[in-house]
Design goal:
260 residues; alpha/beta; Rossmann fold; 7-stranded parallel sheet; 8 helices; 16% strand
Length: 260
């Protein structure tokens, strides 16, 4: 029997991160689910994931805005499960405001969680990958890693930055059996997005269908949300041996947004 690989997914107690974690559980991996705290809701999620696969599912506590916790979270997974074979840097936050009104503390928070955390977790995970001669780093960017939108200075900067970090990681590990790639989703159907629709409808005096088509999906030519299952499937593929020669690449999952 081949050795069971271990995947760490940051920011994985909900949304895209949970979808990715679920996909790795179903693919037979050990999975480390990351959030700041082990709440009753997170305990319930972990119990549900354990029922979906044969690997171990553990909780990996860590505030991704804190560089020391990024390091200790990875070290804890290596200590518990023996290695980090796949690292999915998914943790992210957003804030919208004009540049001249953008709060300094929000800039610092977004850059720390969306970009710096990926550097610190990758730095901590690479020794384990190098020791095995195999590894996968998968960074979750966004369509905003390729194009910009007004009022999202920190988010756009962080997502452009993580794409650069991915390319450097790919170059530095190209001969070591390690790959690094970026997934760039457009709008993905998550509970957070679902919550926005009635709020936006009220704010814009529109129907919910109009909000979906003309506000949220205005930049996506296919006028459809991607699903967390789609993102999870792509992540599992990038971690497979079939993707061994894919490194430094960008996978857009944006319904044609960045094809314009």
């Amino acid at each position: 029997m081949p050795e069971r690989k271990t995947a760490v997914v940051t920011g994985s107690s909900s949304g895209i991160g949970l979808g990715v974690a679920t996909a790795f559980v179903e693919a037979g991996y050990n999975v480390a689910l990351n959030a700041r705290k082990l709440t009753p809701e997170v305990e319930e999620i972990i119990a549900g994931l354990k029922a979906k696969g044969e690997g171990e599912v553990i909780f990996a506590a860590g505030d991704m805005s804190d560089r020391a916790q990024c390091k200790s979270m990875i070290e804890g997974v290596v200590s518990t499960l023996g290695a980090v074979d796949v690292l999915v840097n998914n943790a992210g936050v957003q804030y919208v405001a004009p540049i001249d009104e953008f709060p300094d503390e929000k800039w610092d928070q977004i850059i720390a969680i969306n970009l710096s955390s990926a550097f610190f977790t990758t730095k901590a995970a690479l020794p384990s990958m190098k020791a095995k001669g195999w590894g996968r780093v998968i960074n979750m960017a966004s369509a905003h890693g390729l194009v910009a939108s007004a009022y999202k200075s920190a988010y756009v900067a962080s997502k452009h930055g993580i794409m650069g970090l991915t390319k450097v990681t790919a170059l530095e590990t190209a001969e070591l059996g390690i790959t690094a790639n970026t997934i760039c989703p457009g709008y993905v159907w998550t509970p957070l997005v679902a919550k926005q629709i009635p709020e936006q409808a009220k704010a814009h005096n529109m129907s919910e269908d109009q909000v979906v088509r003309d506000v949220l999906l205005s930049n996506q030519p296919n006028k459809k949300f991607a699903t967390v299952e789609e993102i999870g499937s792509i992540a599992v593929f990038l971690a497979s041996d079939g993707a061994a020669s894919i490194t430094g690449a960008t996978i857009s999952v944006d319904g044609g947004w960045t094809a314009r």
